[in-house]
C-alpha cells in the first residue's frame, strides 16, 4: 500500500496552494512516505491509512509553511528590528517525522487479555 498526499489534502487544512507549492507536493509526498516507512516499517499493518496520511500532511505543511527554515527570535514593530536564525530542527530544509507524527504513528499498546480461565501464580 502506498499512502500519498494530494494538493487537495493540503488545501483542506491550510489554504489554496500557489502553482509553485502545488508542484512540489508530489515529491514531498513521496519523501514523506519513505521517511514514515523508515521510522515505522510495519506502519501499514498497525495504523489506519487515514492516520498515516494525516501525519504526512503535517510533515509536508511544516515544509510549505516555512520553506526557508527561518525562526524569528525577536521582532520589534516600532524599531523595525528583526532578529532571525535558521531553525536547527529543519535548517537543512529536509522533511522529517516529528514528535507529533511519531505520536500519531505509534500503535497503541495492546493490553494483555485476562479471562476467567487465567490463574495467577503465587500464594
Describe this structure in a few short sentences.
The chain has 123 residues and is mainly alpha-helical.
Protein described:
This protein has helices at residues 7-13, 19-39, 43-46, 49-65, 99-105; strands at residues 70-76, 81-86. By secondary structure, the chain is mainly alpha-helical. The protein has one domain (7-105). The protein has a two-stranded antiparallel ribbon. Helix 2 crosses helix 4 (49-65). The longest helix is centred in the first third of the chain and has 21 residues, at 19-39. The protein is elongated. The termini are far apart. The model has no long low-confidence stretch (mean pLDDT 83).
Note the main attributes of this structure.
123 residues, mainly alpha
